[in-house]
Write a structure and sequence with these properties.
With 321 residues, this protein is of the alpha/beta class. It is 33% helix and 20% strand. The strands form two sheets. The protein has a six-stranded parallel sheet. It has a six-stranded parallel sheet with strand order 9-8-7-10-11-12, sandwiched between helices.
Length: 321
C-alpha cells in the first residue's frame, strides 16, 4: 500500500462505484470518498429558492448544486492530494473545480455520459489534467482518453434458480417502444420475461410490461439478473453509444445479451453467439437459435481487462500502484 492521498467523488445512484472506492483503499493509505447523489439539501428560505430559480434560467446551472457540493470543497481546505478523481464533474461550478485543481497534481475526470447528453461536460474539460470518457465520439471530438465502464462485482452466489428467460429494467422514455416490440416478440415465441419500467407517476396497467414507481436498489436488480437467462439492454440510441453497465453485468454473470448498441461489435469480447444486436427502429426478429445455444465463455483475460481493478490502474500512474 502506497502512502498516497486520494479524493474520489462520484454521482452514483446504483452503487456501481462502491468497489472503486474500496479498490482505491487497497492501493492507497488515505482515501476520501463522496457520493454526491445522496447529499441532502434544503433551501434556507423562500428567497434563496427564488434566487436559484432565476439563476438557473439565466446561467443554465442549478445553484442548488453549488450549495450541495460546497461542503466538500470546504472540507478540502488546507489539504493536498496525490489524486483527485471526479465522476460527473459537470455538476460542480467552475469556481469549485478551480479550487480542487489547486489541491492536486493529478486532477482526473471520468465521463460515463456523453457530451451530447450533458453539454456542460465539454465546458469543464480544460480544468483537468486527464479526462477519460466511455463515449468514443467524445474521445475523438475532444481529444479525450477512452475508458469503458467496468465489471463492478467480485463474486455473487451462483446457485440462484432461473425464473424467467429475459430481464431488463429501465426508465420510461422514448426507448419504451423498442421494449414493447421485444416483449411482443417474446410473447409470440413463448419466451418468458420480466421487464421493469420505472416511472415517477403511476402508469396504466400493461399486459407486456411491469411499471414501477419505486426505484430498485442495485442488490434487487442483481437478484433479478441472477434469475434470468439473458439480459436486455436498450441504450439511449441517438444520444450516446458508450456501453452501459448492463453489458458488463452480462459479462460477469455470463448471460447472453440482447442490445440495441451496434458499437458493441467493435469490442474484443463481442461474440454473436452471446450477443444479439437489434435495430431499435425496426421489427424485432431474433433467430430462435440464439436462445437455444449455450453461452460461450470468454478468456479470463477479457474479464480482467474490464474489471474495476483494471479501471483503477488505468487512471492511476503505474508507479503509484
Amino acid at each position: 500500500m502506497k502512502d498516497k492521498k486520494v479524493l474520489f467523488i462520484t454521482f452514483d445512484l446504483s452503487g456501481y462505484y462502491d468497489h472503486i472506492s474500496k479498490g482505491l483503499s487497497k492501493h492507497f493509505s488515505d482515501v476520501e470518498s463522496h457520493n454526491i447523489a445522496y447529499i441532502e439539501f434544503k433551501y434556507k428560505n423562500i428567497f434563496q429558492k427564488i434566487y436559484s430559480a432565476f439563476y438557473k434560467i439565466i446561467k443554465k446551472q442549478k445553484l442548488k448544486n453549488f450549495y450541495k457540493l460546497q461542503p466538500i470543497i470546504e472540507s478540502t481546505q488546507g489539504k493536498t492530494y496525490d489524486y483527485i478523481i471526479i465522476v460527473r464533474p459537470d455538476l460542480f461550478f467552475d469556481v469549485q473545480l478551480q479550487q480542487l485543481k489547486k489541491r492536486t497534481k493529478h486532477f482526473i475526470a471520468y465521463y460515463h455520459d456523453s457530451i451530447n447528453n450533458i453539454e456542460r461536460k465539454k465546458d469543464v474539460i480544460h480544468f483537468f489534467d486527464k479526462v477519460y470518457a466511455y463515449e468514443k465520439k467524445d474521445v475523438k471530438d475532444y481529444n479525450l482518453d477512452f475508458l469503458a465502464n467496468f465489471i463492478y462485482l467480485d463474486n455473487y452466489p451462483s446457485l440462484t434458480p432461473i425464473e424467467y428467460d429475459g430481464f431488463t429494467i429501465m426508465s420510461k422514455d422514448y426507448r419504451l417502444e423498442t421494449l414493447e416490440k421485444i416483449a411482443s416478440f417474446f410473447k409470440a415465441n413463448n419466451i418468458s420475461y420480466k421487464f421493469l419500467v420505472h416511472s415517477d407517476k403511476e402508469q396504466p396497467k400493461s399486459d407486456s410490461l411491469t411499471f414501477i414507481t419505486k426505484r430498485q436498489n442495485n442488490q434487487t436488480v442483481l437478484e433479478h439478473i441472477s434469475k434470468c437467462n439473458f439480459i436486455i439492454d436498450i441504450h439511449k440510441y441517438g444520444i450516446q453509444n458508450g456501453l452501459t453497465f448492463r453489458v458488463f453485468e452480462s459479462l460477469f454473470f455470463q448471460k447472453k445479451l440482447i442490445t440495441s448498441n451496434h458499437d458493441i461489435k467493435t469490442y474484443d469480447f463481442y461474440n454473436p453467439n452471446n450477443i444479439y444486436v437489434l435495430e431499435p427502429n425496426k421489427p424485432v426478429e431474433i433467430p430462435l437459435e440464439f436462445f437455444n445455444t449455450p453461452y460461450q465463455a470468454l478468456p479470463e483475460a477479457i474479464y480482467q481487462k474490464y474489471h474495476y481493478t483494471n479501471w483503477i490502474t488505468t487512471l492511476i500512474n503505474k508507479n503509484d500502484i
